[in-house]
Design brief:
Layout lengths: L5 E8 L3 H11 L6 E5 L3 H12 L9 E4 L8 E6 L15 H17 L5 E4 L4 H11 L7 E3 L3 H15 L6 E2 L2 E2 L7 E2 L5 E2 L2 E2 H7 L5 H13 L1 H9 L4 H15 L4 E3 L2 E7 L2 E7 L2 E4 L2 E5 L6 H19 L4
Parallel strand pairs: 1-2, 1-4, 2-3, 4-5, 5-6
Antiparallel strand pairs: 7-10, 8-9, 10-11, 12-15, 13-14, 15-16
Helix pairs in contact: 1-9, 3-4, 5-7
Length: 317
């Protein structure tokens, strides 16, 4: 008999800076009435739950508490942020071995309990760990998704909005591939409220498209390194990105977001997790949205795939 799922309950595994920031975002979101915090250091989870709970008189009622794996089984979504944090000078892929070892302890615990909800992976390297989660547990592939390039895409929109002095919410553009150094900006699809990006740039007085797009893409790719250099960690941006994915699921929005998920026989890629624009609803991934991309973008996407595939092939799963 399948476990009954409570659509108003969510769990978070890992209460470092990212997990705690996500917990705070979700507690103030009115999306849930129950939030379970699970951490190897239970006192840390208890402290985060208590700290947020002291603000309950100012928000809608929500029960937030430290729990264990058994407490997660009926949650609509389990968010996993557990793992070693990226340090100054490290790439996300540098974290592979440390965090795969951690997932080898976490995922079997969830699988053992025949969890039927959605697993949202946020730990880095997110594409590798999304793939690892699928391979280590007996889960529906559409219900295992990663935060992918949702944050990268938000950073891109922010940078473009700042550059063009226009509301970033009016900018439509995607970053796809690895959440990392081989990510690809789909400039060929980018637009501002339907106006092709290059044309809109010219309306705003910018004509050196190659220089500007290259600089913005580089700034976006290096954003995490810049923040880590300045404050040792990134967590607010990813917390808000995670909240956005969760909203799309809870409200069954059918939103299109560049989440990381299993890719099978698409764009000459197979058996890897990376980010593509994806339709998201109450049961997780509905389908990938076909991309109209140019030859150069397709080649870069394939390069990103090969980079991730090389890492996957070295894993002992």
């Amino acid at each position: 008999m399948a476990n009954l799922i409570n659509d108003k309950k969510i769990g978070i595994i890992g209460l470092g800076n990212v997990g705690a920031s996500i917990a705070f975002c979700l507690a103030t979101s009115s999306l849930f009435n129950e939030i379970v915090l699970v951490d190897l250091n239970k006192e840390k989870a208890q402290g985060e739950a208590l700290d947020i709970s002291h603000g309950l008189p100012f928000i809608r009622p929500v029960k937030i508490y430290a729990g264990n794996y058994d407490d997660l089984i009926d949650a609509k979504i389990i968010i996993i942020t557990a793992g070693a944090a990226q340090k100054e000078g490290e790439t996300r892929l540098d974290l592979v071995n440390k965090n795969v070892a951690i997932f080898k302890k976490i995922i079997p615990e969830i699988s053992l309990r025949k969890y039927q909800g959605i697993l949202l992976i946020v730990s880095n390297p997110v594409d590798i760990l999304t793939y690892v989660t699928l391979k280590l547990g007996n889960f529906n592939k559409n219900k295992v998704i990663g935060s992918g390039t949702v944050l990268d895409t938000a950073r891109l929109k922010y940078k473009l909005g700042e550059h063009l002095n226009v509301d970033s919410r009016s900018i439509h553009a995607f970053i796809v591939g690895e959440h990392g150094d081989s990510e690809i900006v789909l400039w060929s699809n980018a637009n501002v409220s339907g106006i092709p990006l290059h044309k809109f740039c010219e309306l705003r007085g910018y004509f050196d498209h190659d220089y500007e797009t290259s600089k913005i893409a580089s700034d976006v790719k290096n954003s995490a390194y810049e923040i880590i250099n300045k404050k040792q960690a990134t967590y607010y941006g990813i917390a808000l990105s995670t909240k956005r994915i969760v909203e799309a699921i809870i409200y069954d929005e059918k939103s299109i977001l560049p989440i990381s998920s299993l890719i099978e026989d698409e764009y000459d890629m197979n058996d890897v997790s990376l980010s593509l624009p994806s339709l998201i609803g109450k049961d997780g991934l509905i389908q990938h949205i076909p991309l109209l991309i140019n030859k150069e973008e397709k080649e870069k996407l394939y390069h990103s795939y090969l980079k991730l595939k090389k890492v996957i092939n070295k894993l002992e799963l």
